[in-house]
Amino acid sequence: MKTTTTTKIWGLFLIVSLFSGLALLNAAENEKNILTPEIVAKAKELHGHTCPGLCIGFRVAEWVAREFETDKPENKLIAVSEIAMCGVDAFQIVLDCTAGKGNMITKNSYGKHAFNFYRSRDGKKVRLLWKMKETPEFQKKMQAINSDDPKARNIAMQEYIMSAPFDDLFVVMEPLEEMPDIKRTKKDIPCSSCGEGVETLLIKEKDGKKICVPCLLKQQSAQNNSSL
Ligand SMILES: [Zn+2]
Ligand SMILES: [Zn+2]
């Protein structure tokens, strides 16, 4: 009888430990440190300074790395920033999206603090829109800093961005544009107008002739001017 009770208690203990062990494992998995000191230092080095914009990039990159599981080598991303801003340098280091590889696209002419990410293998996508500084939460925070020293305000802003709940800072939504095609043939075709070589997949065609984008735009604006 005594043995049975002991066995039951031991069994219960094992079950409880197993579950708490699993819970701990899950917690560790969820809290995997993406912004390690090495990664942060690398991004700071690339960018040349620390600033609120770089912090925006860190928060976005950290969220995306978790959500898109970029620690797995098959999960390659294409990033499209709708503005050239400091945070793009954090994407390059944390998410391995770089201008040179063609998977870090910057559409500066859009002028929006919105960051799109697409996972190449399955098309999973997201657009993270920075909530404007004019939001009540941000204003309240800035008033609380109560300092005229721009340096102190800058540091306080960085601290706020790094610690605020993600939803206070960003709107999570669907991208407005499809995943860009970044495939390249690495073969050039000469433009019929300027003679310069153009990547095969990017050359245009006009009146049956191959033409580069700048020449095409020049011809179009000349036509528009002459028809005025
Ligand atoms: Zn900066
Ligand atoms: Zn041309």
What do these coordinates show?
This protein is α+β, with helices and mostly antiparallel strands and 228 residues long. The protein folds into two domains: 137 residues, 60s Ribosomal Protein L30, Chain: A (2-Layer Sandwich); 39 residues, Wheat Germ Agglutinin (Isolectin 2), domain 1, CATH 3.30.60. Helix content is 46%, strand content 16%. The chain is built from eight helices and nine strands. A five-stranded mixed beta sheet has the order 2-1-3-4-5. Helix 2 crosses helix 4, helix 3 packs parallel to helix 4 and helix 3 packs parallel to helix 6. The longest helix has 29 residues. The chain starts with a helix and ends with a helix. About 8% of the residues have low confidence. One zinc ion binds next to helix 3.
